Each structure stands twice: as structure tokens, then as C-alpha cells.
Amino acid sequence: MAELLSKLGINWTLLIAQLVNFLLLFLLLRRFLFLPLQSKLLTRRADIAKLVKERQEIEQIKQATEELYHANIAQAKKEADHIIKHAQEAASRSASEMIEMAKAQADKVIKDAEAKIQSQTATAITLIRQETAELAVMLAEKVLQQELSTPKKQIQLLEKELATKIH
């Protein structure tokens, strides 16, 4: 067998030395490159999941605010209808003067409710925008802090580095 390998030009000592070098390189790369890189990727994945969860919470807050807005509008309309109904009853007893006064009150209640709703909506939208902007900035900072953006790019970089180290 040794004779056949020597005829093929294979040197056992060189083959064993290359095998040892390969195993040593593999262990060093695994210890100092692959494991830390995998740890960073897991941390980044957890950070992104956290940001996605926070964004979903903000969306829920936004939806709740919109529902509150519509509920307030409906309540304001009910109040206005109630005031108008009372005004009509009072008008049947007293005169057109009472009707005008009730309509003015109803308009005032509607305008106040709309102003209140608009104020609450503007405040909620501002809060949502601020939180969304903060999340976007946090996400951008975390993405910019990462050297590698996708597993494909990471693999390409690793393959390129391995190719340069092997050749």
C-alpha cells in the first residue's frame, strides 16, 4: 500500500501534517469565529423580535385610540341627540326661544366633544409617532452596529475569508 501511495506521489508525513493543520485551523475558526458570530446573530435575532413585539404593542395602542375616538364621537352624538330631544320637549312647553337655546347647547357639546376627541387623537398620534420614531432609530442603530446584515452575506464573507486563508 505504501509503495502504491509513493508511486502516486503521496507523502505520508506531509499528508498527516496537512490533516493536523486543517484540524487546528478548523478548531480555531470554530472557537474564535463561528461561535462568537453565532452568539451575535442570536442576540440580534432576539433584539429584532423585541422591536417587532414593541411595534405590535404600539399598533394595538393606536387601534385602541381609534376605537376610543369613534366611541367618543358616538357618545357625543348621543349626548347631542339627548339635548335636542330635551330642547324639543321644552320648546313645546315654552316656545322657539327654548329650541334655539337647546340647539346652541347641543352644538357647543358637539364642538367641545369634537375638540376633545381631536385633542386626544392628536396626542395619541403624536405619542405613537414618537414611539415609532424611537423604535425606528433603535432598530437603525442596532442594524448599523452589526457588521453583517443577513445570513447569506455572512456566509459569503466566511467563504471568501476561508478561500483567502486556504489559498
Provide keyphrases for this structure.
rod-shaped, 167 residues, single chain, mainly alpha, 92% helix
Write a structural description:
- This protein is mainly α and 167 residues long.
- The protein has 4 helices and no strands.
- Helix 2 (12-93) packs antiparallel against helix 3.
- The longest helix is centred in the N-terminal third of the chain and has 82 residues, at 12-93.
- The mean pLDDT is 83.
Q: Concise description?
A:
The protein has 167 residues and is an all-alpha fold. It is 92% helix and 0% strand. It has four helices and no strands.
Task: Please write out the topology.
Blueprint: H1 2-7, H2 12-93, H3 96-145, H4 151-166
Structural class, judged by helices and strands? mainly alpha
Gyration radius, in Å: 36 Å
Give the low-confidence spans.
none
* Helicity range: over 70%
Strand content bin: under 5%
Q: How would you sum up the global shape? A: rod-shaped
Instruction: Report the total helices.
Output: 4
Total strands: the figure is 0
Distance between the termini: 30 Å
The major sheet is characterized as: none
